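Final report, Chapter 2: Outcomes

The project's central promise was a pipeline that accepts a single protein chain and returns its three-dimensional structure in a standardized token representation, suitable for archiving and comparison. That pipeline is now operational. To close this chapter, we reproduce one record exactly as it appears in the project archive, with the input sequence first and the structure output second.
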Amino acid sequence: MEGNILVIISDQELLQRSVEPAHDLFPVMRRASVMSPLVVLLALGPGLLAFHSYRIDELSAWFGLQCLGKAELIGDSTNALISQPPLIRWMFTGLLSVIGHWSSSLVLFSYFSTALMLYVAYRLTRKVCNPRYALVFCFLLSFHPVVLKQVQLIEAPAFPILFALLTIWGFITHLRSESGIVSYKLLCGGISLGLCLLSGGALALAVLVMLGLYILNPAELPKSRSGSEQKKAPVFKQAVRIWKSFFILAFTGFAVGGWWELMASSQIEGFWGKWFAGPGQPNISLYWKTEFYPSYFVRDLISSMGFLLGFAVFGLFHGLKRVINPQGNMQEIAWLRLVVMWVLSGALFWWGVQFLPEMNTSTRAMWKLFFIIPMLAIVAWEFQQIALRRVSYPTVLAVFTVGVLAVIFISASHTDTLSPQISTHFLRQLITLGLSLVMVLWYSHRFKKEQGHRLVEIAMVISLSALHVIYGVYSVPKPNPAGERLLQFEHQLRLTQNVDHCLLVSKSEPPLELTFLIFYLWGDIDYKQIQGAVIPQDLAIPAETGTAIAAEKPDEEKPDAGKQVIVRWGASPVSLRNLVNAGFVLKPVAAPDVYKQHELQADLITNAPQGF
């Protein structure tokens, strides 16, 4: 018995050892690496909701007329888009020439840009973190209202964001896996930065600012995987290598995309101000425009995060604690540092553009998306911490409460204030939330502590995720009645081919959508626009020679002559009396309909006499 050692354990230590260890909330997520095919579904599926509900609107028509070189039709002879990055216009015009002119094809480029952005976001986070985190991040991002709404913007805000993510991927992977100052990964990042400059303009500068803040303290960055780097190099030498790589990245990006800015600035007066602040656009009334022109930054932030606001608030708090006191997995801490710097840069630029009233809607959506992506990265990280049971039970209750309370607050507040409207419905929702929390606390204490907490946390995380999906799906703008009528009108006009001349008659200024639709369907035709009660008698209308003779021939022998169409919006039949008196025959090609409170119809002009 002399060799035995007596171990004395206190009661407190016995209690700690008797406590059941916290288990992972979702063990199935450990196999997230085999769930990668779901990413394709997440990238393509949710965006279809916005893609199929899109209809031509004023913003699309404004951008489309600019791309077609018809700026004079919207009162802009200087071409407002000439000072903006040209890559999206080039891609948009080229895609339309390939797939043809259909209503849905206007946002096809934006839809695929969003899908690629989501896939690249997944690959980036999987590379720097783990498959589990990447899958959650892609899920949250694909159903976010800002991501779904911007699919309906034909200027594709996700396209420059795609190259911003590729730039970050190239630079981060170069620092992690290469010991030299340059590599093919860094050059790929530089090329992406140049394409970001050509498509997003000042967005490329924001990416450089964010990466510059990230490498301010090179000592805390993860070391290279190469053998030579494992020998602890001096901090100064490591800093010099990182900053050299950063300047090579910036120089490569400027070499790829900066040539256009230099060329345009030498030809356009006041180019740099228009390049950053935007050229301005007409006062377009969109039914979801207020989401991109918020009256208050804080209100729009709360509205954008929705049910995920609790994850974002506590995730930022916990992430900052890990960054300030780095302990544990340095790769995870390095990613948190990048995300925190990204949030600060994105918030600064997004807040700053609120003071630029001339910036167009799509550019504002791009800056908002640039801020939302790192916020969702924080949300996904906090989601993972909760699932791994690294967050206390009261904190999980607070995350749920803040998320639900934020949506109740936004739904009850006015559209232009931060104060909720005190109403019976608002108070009823608050009471329901309070009673729900009381029932949750009662349920969790009724059973064994570990079992009760686990079930409650699983229910809360799943419910918040489901509410986020519902919040995103219902935020997609539904087709308005005017858009549906214009779509039917387009389908009828499409049956009339070989149109060379079009006459648009209206009592007042016609809608941009109608003007754009004519060129969108029939190309660069001879177009005349008349405002007034009667068509002028001296109007030169080209006569269709040989129409009577051609009518007597069989269909296979008829000449393929150009046709003339007259479109009337809000113009009475009296306005056509000069045409009828001159012997013209009007054949309806579209059923009369009401569009924007005015009658809309189209006729084919035939049997035109000589000398009208």
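Archive annotation: The first helix runs from residue 11 to 18.
This record, like all others produced under the grant, will remain available to the consortium after the project formally closes.
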